[in-house]
Automatic annotation (TrEMBL), chains A, B:
This is glutathione transferase. Residues 6-85 form the GST N-terminal domain. The keyword Flavoprotein does not apply. Belongs to the GST superfamily. One of its GO terms (molecular function) is glutathione transferase activity. The keyword Signal does not apply. Its EC number is 2.5.1.18. PANTHER family: GLUTATHIONE S-TRANSFERASE, GST, SUPERFAMILY, GST DOMAIN CONTAINING, GLUTATHIONE TRANSFERASE. InterPro entries: Glutathione-S-Trfase_C-like, Glutathione-S-Trfase_C_sf, Glutathione_S-Trfase, Glutathione_S-Trfase_N, GST_C, GST_C_Tau, Omega/Tau-like, Thioredoxin-like_sf. Keywords: Transferase. CDD domains: GST_C_Tau (cd03185), GST_N_Tau (cd03058).
Length: 224, 224
């Protein structure tokens, strides 16, 4: 890991896939940073001051300048530390990478929330159809080992929520949204991604997430 | 307007504020392009082929490569034609510009839709409160003539929906969400923005939008 004299802090919560994105990107870049766990029931002064709009993690604090919103942070990281680029250099390829990253945030996550957390059965069914369609689009988009080509790029990092979180969350909720038989290419990609040495080292323990999302299931679904 | 030999097309719909963003950015850059109006009830082959995921305008087609999603297109335009930059050069300032552009898309537009289009009175009230809060955050963020400083930047362009569209839409719906007494700085900014010579020349006629959004009001609200 490269040494850096700069002050870099990541305001974090282990269970958040959005924090996971930033964590992976910083480690792919070889940046040293402090991982500061926030208690969302008792948010730190630093969190409230550095993300007054959303008051959410992740926040990257770099030499006292704070940046919020995981996709915005990923672009900042790539522009600030230019080694191991996560965005392509060609403007058109950059546009495509941004398009698919945004697609994951706008479509996959929204559909997954609906499919898993809605109390209305019809809404849950609709969410399941939408995530199916969205994952098929991603399945068709995957041309190489990674969305970024031979190396991990911003779309792969954004999609950690599909590669690592979704299989655990769907198990906690007793659903099957993302399976190897329906999405064989995406499944192979998820294995390659999760087993990438740097990614693997920085993913939170499966058991930690399972307990957390089973708690979600109990509170949001089972008890209603 | 600078000459360019390249083939640039904007698949468009006059009434769309998202198209308006791209139109303004291309003109601020002095790019020559064809403005191709789509009929959304009978979409062109080119639209279906170039934006298969959303099948929506705007789409920028540059030398047969197509880019969708207005914020993604704005970044592409800035990286492809570097004159009159719309994003700052400093990575931190770029991050802030991306944060506020995304904020407008995620918060202001979502709240405005709820405040204007929801059939549930409580939802409409909630939307009105949310847009009030979001516009106050933008009011506080406005430090110079424009969000971009002395020149128009990506946040200003993204916010054309507030500067030009919102006053017309709220009038069509008989609502008062954005007013000069509640948001004096933002109101002054909107006047400066709308009257910028290049912006002014490329905004759609007020009357065209009024007819279109009164139609929305009749179909979505008045007839229910």
């Amino acid at each position: 890991m490269a040494a850096n004299k700069e002050d870099v802090k990541l305001l974090a919560m282990v269970e958040s896939p959005f924090v996971g994105r930033v964590d992976i990107a910083l480690n792919l870049k070889g940046i040293q940073y402090k991982y500061e766990v926030e208690n969302l029931k008792n948010k730190s002064e630093l969190l409230l001051k550095s993300n007054p709009v959303y008051k959410k993690v992740p926040v990257l604090v770099h030499n006292e300048k704070s940046i919020s919103e995981s996709l915005v942070i990923l672009e900042y990281i790539d522009e600030t530390w230019t080694q191991n680029p996560i965005l392509p250099s060609d403007p058109y390829k950059r546009a495509l990478a941004r398009f698919w990253s945004k697609f994951i945030d706008d479509k996959v996550i929204d559909a997954a929330r609906k499919a898993l957390y809605s109390h209305d059965e019809k809404e849950r069914e609709k969410g399941a159809e939408e995530i199916d369609e969205a994952l098929h689009l991603l399945e068709n988009e995957l041309k190489d080992k990674f969305f970024g080509g031979e190396e991990i790029g911003i779309v792969d990092i954004t999609a950690v929520i599909i590669a690592y979180w979704l299989p655990i969350i769907q198990e906690a909720f007793g659903e099957k949204l993302f399976t190897s038989d329906k999405f064989p290419k995406l499944y192979n990609w998820s294995q390659d991604f999760n087993n990438h040495p740097i990614v693997k080292e920085h993913l939170p323990p499966r058991e930690t997430l399972m307990i957390y999302y089973k708690g979600h299931y109990e509170r949001h679904i089972a008890s209603k």
